Predict the structure.
Amino acid sequence: MERLLTQFASEAASGEQNKDLFASLGIDWTLLIVQLVAFLILVWLLGKFVYPVLVRTIDAREEKIAEAGKAAEAAEKKAEQAEAKIDDALKQARVEAADIVATAKQEATQMVEKAEAQAKIRSDRIVAEAQADIQKEVILARKALHKETISLVKKAAGLAVAGIADDRLDTALIKKSVEEASR
């Protein structure tokens, strides 16, 4: 490797060899110029016909990607809004359900209280009717007892005073005796 470097350095040192330097590297000036012109023509043709099509295609793809990104963002926002609406609807439904349950409990309590009140009124009425019936029966029993007592006393007095007084006197005496006894 050292030998190659020294040879290259020695050739570069000479002025005449400078001209031959490109030749020693295998570069032909005419061929280099022709290749340069062909390259420039190729670049011009690519720039005129190929690159604009590629740029339009890339721009179109970028626009589609941007639109897709915007659509994705819009869909995500709509999904968030829909989720928020669903959450609100669920909250509202829970509140309404709680109100319905509370109303149902309140109505059930009112119905029970009303039934209890009606049962109490009915039982009070039955008790009052029974007491009235009992009082009527007591009055009837007292009257019957009173009549029976008068007849027994009349019989007893009739036996005791068998020939002394008449029926009117007996009845008057018995009534007087019963009234005094009841006092």
